Amino acid sequence: MKIGIVEYKDDQFIRDVISKLGEFEIEFVFFRERSAPVGSDYRVIVDRLGFMDLYLREMMKNLALSGTYIINNPFSSAEIDKISNTRHFDSLGILHPKTIVLPRINEIYDFNELVGEPDWSRICEGISFPCILKPFDGYAWDNVYKVNSLDELKNLYDAMKFRHILLVQELIRYVDYYRVFCINKRDVLLVKWNPKPLDMGESIYTDLKQIEDLKDTIIEKTIKLNSSIDLDFNAVEWCITEDRKAFIIDAFNDTPEIVRGKMPEPYYWWIVDKFADCIREKFHSNEKNRTIFPLP
Length: 296
Fold this sequence. Notes:
The chain is of the alpha+beta class. The protein has 3 domains: 2-78, Rossmann fold, CATH 3.40.50.20; 98-170, 2-Layer Sandwich (Dna Ligase, domain 1); 173-271, ATP-grasp fold, B domain (D-amino Acid Aminotransferase, Chain A, domain 1), CATH 3.30.470.
Protein backbone atom coordinates (compact mmCIF):
# COMPACT_ATOMS: atom_id res chain seq x y z
CA MET A 1 0.00 0.00 0.00
CA LYS A 2 1.12 3.53 -0.77
CA ILE A 3 0.50 7.14 0.16
CA GLY A 4 -0.83 9.35 -2.62
CA ILE A 5 -0.47 13.12 -2.88
CA VAL A 6 -2.91 15.37 -4.75
CA GLU A 7 -0.99 18.64 -4.83
CA TYR A 8 1.28 20.59 -7.14
CA LYS A 9 4.68 18.91 -7.20
CA ASP A 10 6.55 22.15 -6.51
CA ASP A 11 4.58 22.97 -3.34
CA GLN A 12 7.19 23.46 -0.61
CA PHE A 13 4.90 22.52 2.27
CA ILE A 14 3.96 19.13 0.85
CA ARG A 15 7.61 18.50 -0.07
CA ASP A 16 8.61 19.11 3.54
CA VAL A 17 5.83 16.81 4.76
CA ILE A 18 7.01 14.06 2.40
CA SER A 19 10.56 14.44 3.75
CA LYS A 20 9.22 13.36 7.16
CA LEU A 21 7.68 10.17 5.73
CA GLY A 22 10.73 8.47 4.28
CA GLU A 23 9.65 5.00 5.38
CA PHE A 24 6.67 4.99 2.98
CA GLU A 25 6.22 4.64 -0.76
CA ILE A 26 4.77 8.00 -1.76
CA GLU A 27 3.74 9.27 -5.16
CA PHE A 28 1.83 12.12 -6.67
CA VAL A 29 -1.51 10.82 -7.93
CA PHE A 30 -2.22 11.05 -11.65
CA PHE A 31 -5.82 10.70 -12.78
CA ARG A 32 -6.86 9.38 -16.16
CA GLU A 33 -10.01 7.42 -17.03
CA ARG A 34 -11.33 5.38 -14.12
CA SER A 35 -13.75 2.50 -13.95
CA ALA A 36 -16.67 2.94 -11.61
CA PRO A 37 -16.68 2.19 -8.73
CA VAL A 38 -13.24 3.71 -8.27
CA GLY A 39 -10.58 1.74 -6.37
CA SER A 40 -6.87 2.15 -5.72
CA ASP A 41 -3.84 0.69 -3.97
CA TYR A 42 -3.41 3.85 -1.86
CA ARG A 43 -4.04 3.45 1.86
CA VAL A 44 -3.98 7.24 2.36
CA ILE A 45 -4.37 10.12 -0.08
CA VAL A 46 -3.58 13.68 0.94
CA ASP A 47 -5.94 15.87 -1.09
CA ARG A 48 -4.95 19.54 -1.31
CA LEU A 49 -6.50 20.34 -4.69
CA GLY A 50 -9.95 18.75 -4.65
CA PHE A 51 -11.55 21.95 -3.34
CA MET A 52 -10.64 23.59 -6.65
CA ASP A 53 -12.09 21.00 -9.00
CA LEU A 54 -15.35 19.01 -8.99
CA TYR A 55 -13.82 16.04 -10.86
CA LEU A 56 -11.05 15.65 -8.28
CA ARG A 57 -13.53 16.01 -5.41
CA GLU A 58 -15.78 13.27 -6.84
CA MET A 59 -12.78 10.99 -7.36
CA MET A 60 -11.85 11.53 -3.70
CA LYS A 61 -15.37 10.55 -2.61
CA ASN A 62 -15.27 7.36 -4.63
CA LEU A 63 -11.81 6.44 -3.38
CA ALA A 64 -12.99 6.99 0.19
CA LEU A 65 -15.89 4.61 -0.41
CA SER A 66 -13.39 2.02 -1.65
CA GLY A 67 -11.40 2.16 1.59
CA THR A 68 -8.71 4.74 0.89
CA TYR A 69 -8.45 7.23 3.75
CA ILE A 70 -8.65 10.76 2.31
CA ILE A 71 -7.24 13.76 4.16
CA ASN A 72 -9.44 15.77 4.35
CA ASN A 73 -12.70 13.84 4.27
CA PRO A 74 -14.20 14.80 0.87
CA PHE A 75 -17.76 14.30 2.12
CA SER A 76 -17.20 16.83 4.89
CA SER A 77 -15.39 19.24 2.60
CA ALA A 78 -18.13 19.12 -0.01
CA GLU A 79 -21.03 19.69 2.37
CA ILE A 80 -19.89 22.19 5.01
CA ASP A 81 -20.55 25.87 4.46
CA LYS A 82 -20.94 29.06 6.46
CA ILE A 83 -24.68 28.51 6.84
CA SER A 84 -24.61 24.97 8.20
CA ASN A 85 -21.59 25.88 10.34
CA THR A 86 -23.77 28.05 12.55
CA ARG A 87 -25.73 24.96 13.63
CA HIS A 88 -22.46 23.36 14.77
CA PHE A 89 -21.53 26.51 16.67
CA ASP A 90 -24.81 26.63 18.54
CA SER A 91 -24.68 22.94 19.47
CA LEU A 92 -21.13 23.37 20.82
CA GLY A 93 -21.80 26.61 22.67
CA ILE A 94 -19.51 28.64 20.40
CA LEU A 95 -20.14 32.36 19.99
CA HIS A 96 -20.44 33.52 16.38
CA PRO A 97 -21.60 36.63 14.52
CA LYS A 98 -25.33 37.11 13.97
CA THR A 99 -26.02 35.95 10.43
CA ILE A 100 -28.79 36.52 7.86
CA VAL A 101 -28.89 34.60 4.57
CA LEU A 102 -29.83 36.54 1.43
CA PRO A 103 -31.47 34.69 -1.47
CA ARG A 104 -29.63 33.98 -4.66
CA ILE A 105 -31.71 34.88 -7.71
CA ASN A 106 -31.85 32.16 -10.35
CA GLU A 107 -31.73 33.50 -13.91
CA ILE A 108 -32.68 30.16 -15.48
CA TYR A 109 -35.55 28.84 -13.37
CA ASP A 110 -38.42 30.93 -12.10
CA PHE A 111 -38.61 30.58 -8.32
CA ASN A 112 -40.44 33.86 -7.79
CA GLU A 113 -43.03 32.20 -5.56
CA LEU A 114 -40.26 30.89 -3.30
CA VAL A 115 -37.58 33.57 -3.48
CA GLY A 116 -38.23 37.26 -3.17
CA GLU A 117 -36.52 40.54 -2.40
CA PRO A 118 -34.89 40.62 1.06
CA ASP A 119 -36.77 42.35 3.85
CA TRP A 120 -34.27 45.15 4.31
CA SER A 121 -36.02 46.59 7.36
CA ARG A 122 -35.73 43.23 9.14
CA ILE A 123 -32.05 43.06 8.24
CA CYS A 124 -31.46 46.55 9.63
CA GLU A 125 -33.20 45.57 12.86
CA GLY A 126 -31.24 42.35 13.24
CA ILE A 127 -27.78 43.52 12.20
CA SER A 128 -26.49 47.07 12.55
CA PHE A 129 -24.04 48.89 10.29
CA PRO A 130 -21.24 48.55 9.59
CA CYS A 131 -21.61 44.85 8.85
CA ILE A 132 -19.94 42.16 6.71
CA LEU A 133 -21.23 40.81 3.39
CA LYS A 134 -19.68 37.60 2.03
CA PRO A 135 -20.54 34.43 0.06
CA PHE A 136 -21.76 31.46 2.09
CA ASP A 137 -19.08 29.22 0.55
CA GLY A 138 -16.23 31.69 0.16
CA TYR A 139 -12.50 31.10 0.55
CA ALA A 140 -9.57 33.37 1.31
CA TRP A 141 -11.56 36.56 1.85
CA ASP A 142 -12.75 36.54 -1.75
CA ASN A 143 -15.76 38.87 -2.24
CA VAL A 144 -15.81 39.85 1.44
CA TYR A 145 -16.97 43.42 2.04
CA LYS A 146 -17.34 45.72 5.00
CA VAL A 147 -20.64 47.50 4.38
CA ASN A 148 -21.36 50.88 5.94
CA SER A 149 -24.94 51.63 4.89
CA LEU A 150 -28.16 50.07 3.63
CA ASP A 151 -27.71 51.63 0.17
CA GLU A 152 -24.25 50.11 -0.09
CA LEU A 153 -25.61 46.74 0.98
CA LYS A 154 -28.39 46.87 -1.61
CA ASN A 155 -25.97 47.83 -4.39
CA LEU A 156 -23.57 45.00 -3.56
CA TYR A 157 -26.42 42.53 -3.34
CA ASP A 158 -27.77 43.60 -6.73
CA ALA A 159 -24.31 43.12 -8.25
CA MET A 160 -23.80 39.64 -6.76
CA LYS A 161 -27.24 38.09 -6.26
CA PHE A 162 -27.15 36.07 -9.50
CA ARG A 163 -23.78 34.49 -8.69
CA HIS A 164 -23.68 33.92 -4.92
CA ILE A 165 -25.70 33.00 -1.90
CA LEU A 166 -24.73 35.88 0.35
CA LEU A 167 -24.52 36.28 4.10
CA VAL A 168 -24.94 39.50 6.04
CA GLN A 169 -23.03 39.18 9.30
CA GLU A 170 -22.57 41.20 12.41
CA LEU A 171 -19.21 42.96 12.51
CA ILE A 172 -17.29 41.74 15.56
CA ARG A 173 -14.92 44.40 16.86
CA TYR A 174 -11.91 42.54 18.16
CA VAL A 175 -8.66 43.28 19.93
CA ASP A 176 -6.88 40.05 18.95
CA TYR A 177 -7.28 37.64 16.06
CA TYR A 178 -6.00 34.05 15.99
CA ARG A 179 -5.61 31.38 13.37
CA VAL A 180 -5.95 28.06 15.16
CA PHE A 181 -4.54 25.03 13.38
CA CYS A 182 -6.07 21.69 14.35
CA ILE A 183 -4.47 18.46 13.12
CA ASN A 184 -5.76 14.94 13.63
CA LYS A 185 -8.67 16.31 15.69
CA ARG A 186 -6.20 16.48 18.57
CA ASP A 187 -3.15 18.70 18.10
CA VAL A 188 -3.85 22.44 18.26
CA LEU A 189 -1.62 25.45 17.55
CA LEU A 190 -2.81 28.99 18.30
CA VAL A 191 -1.12 31.61 16.15
CA LYS A 192 -1.80 35.32 16.31
CA TRP A 193 -2.80 36.47 12.86
CA ASN A 194 -3.08 39.79 11.10
CA PRO A 195 -5.95 39.18 8.66
CA LYS A 196 -5.78 40.92 5.30
CA PRO A 197 -7.51 40.31 1.95
CA LEU A 198 -5.81 39.13 -1.24
CA ASP A 199 -3.70 36.54 0.59
CA MET A 200 -1.76 39.25 2.43
CA GLY A 201 -2.48 38.04 5.98
CA GLU A 202 0.48 37.17 8.16
CA SER A 203 1.17 35.03 11.22
CA ILE A 204 3.30 36.48 14.00
CA TYR A 205 5.01 35.21 17.14
CA THR A 206 2.39 34.61 19.77
CA ASP A 207 2.46 35.09 23.54
CA LEU A 208 -0.39 32.93 24.77
CA LYS A 209 -0.25 34.61 28.16
CA GLN A 210 -2.36 37.33 26.54
CA ILE A 211 -5.25 34.86 26.28
CA GLU A 212 -4.53 32.68 29.29
CA ASP A 213 -8.17 33.09 30.36
CA LEU A 214 -9.51 31.86 27.01
CA LYS A 215 -6.83 29.53 25.65
CA ASP A 216 -8.20 26.27 27.07
CA THR A 217 -11.73 27.08 25.93
CA ILE A 218 -10.57 27.86 22.39
CA ILE A 219 -8.58 24.62 22.22
CA GLU A 220 -11.45 22.54 23.58
CA LYS A 221 -14.03 24.08 21.24
CA THR A 222 -11.72 23.78 18.23
CA ILE A 223 -11.17 20.07 18.83
CA LYS A 224 -14.89 19.45 19.35
CA LEU A 225 -15.71 21.36 16.18
CA ASN A 226 -13.25 19.43 14.02
CA SER A 227 -14.42 16.12 15.47
CA SER A 228 -18.00 17.13 14.69
CA ILE A 229 -17.29 17.98 11.05
CA ASP A 230 -14.68 15.21 10.67
CA LEU A 231 -11.69 17.21 9.49
CA ASP A 232 -8.11 16.05 10.10
CA PHE A 233 -6.52 19.34 9.04
CA ASN A 234 -8.25 22.66 9.48
CA ALA A 235 -7.46 26.30 10.24
CA VAL A 236 -10.11 27.95 12.39
CA GLU A 237 -10.24 31.72 12.85
CA TRP A 238 -11.09 33.11 16.28
CA CYS A 239 -11.22 36.68 17.48
CA ILE A 240 -11.16 38.09 21.01
CA THR A 241 -13.29 41.09 21.93
CA GLU A 242 -12.41 43.78 24.43
CA ASP A 243 -14.78 42.24 27.00
CA ARG A 244 -12.88 38.91 26.75
CA LYS A 245 -15.30 36.92 24.62
CA ALA A 246 -14.05 34.49 21.97
CA PHE A 247 -15.99 34.53 18.69
CA ILE A 248 -15.43 32.10 15.85
CA ILE A 249 -15.23 33.95 12.53
CA ASP A 250 -14.34 31.22 10.05
CA ALA A 251 -14.51 27.55 11.01
CA PHE A 252 -13.75 25.90 7.72
CA ASN A 253 -10.44 26.03 5.89
CA ASP A 254 -9.83 22.40 5.00
CA THR A 255 -6.90 23.22 2.71
CA PRO A 256 -5.03 25.88 4.66
CA GLU A 257 -2.24 27.55 2.74
CA ILE A 258 0.97 26.87 4.64
CA VAL A 259 3.80 29.07 3.38
CA ARG A 260 7.12 28.87 5.21
CA GLY A 261 7.97 32.52 4.65
CA LYS A 262 4.63 33.75 6.01
CA MET A 263 4.89 32.35 9.52
CA PRO A 264 7.57 31.93 12.19
CA GLU A 265 9.77 28.88 11.54
CA PRO A 266 8.80 26.97 14.73
CA TYR A 267 5.13 27.19 13.80
CA TYR A 268 5.77 26.04 10.25
CA TRP A 269 7.73 22.99 11.34
CA TRP A 270 5.20 22.17 14.06
CA ILE A 271 2.52 21.96 11.35
CA VAL A 272 4.77 19.90 9.06
CA ASP A 273 5.63 17.43 11.83
CA LYS A 274 2.08 17.05 13.15
CA PHE A 275 0.63 16.65 9.66
CA ALA A 276 3.20 13.97 8.84
CA ASP A 277 2.32 12.23 12.13
CA CYS A 278 -1.36 12.33 11.17
CA ILE A 279 -0.69 10.74 7.77
CA ARG A 280 1.47 8.06 9.38
CA GLU A 281 -1.19 7.26 11.97
CA LYS A 282 -3.96 6.96 9.37
CA PHE A 283 -1.78 4.70 7.21
CA HIS A 284 -1.31 2.23 10.05
CA SER A 285 -4.94 2.36 11.22
CA ASN A 286 -8.12 0.72 10.01
CA GLU A 287 -9.97 4.04 9.97
CA LYS A 288 -12.33 5.00 7.19
CA ASN A 289 -13.68 8.40 6.29
CA ARG A 290 -17.09 9.15 7.70
CA THR A 291 -19.61 9.10 4.84
CA ILE A 292 -23.21 10.10 4.36
CA PHE A 293 -24.18 6.43 4.16
CA PRO A 294 -22.50 3.50 5.94
CA LEU A 295 -20.64 0.84 3.97
CA PRO A 296 -19.13 -2.37 5.36
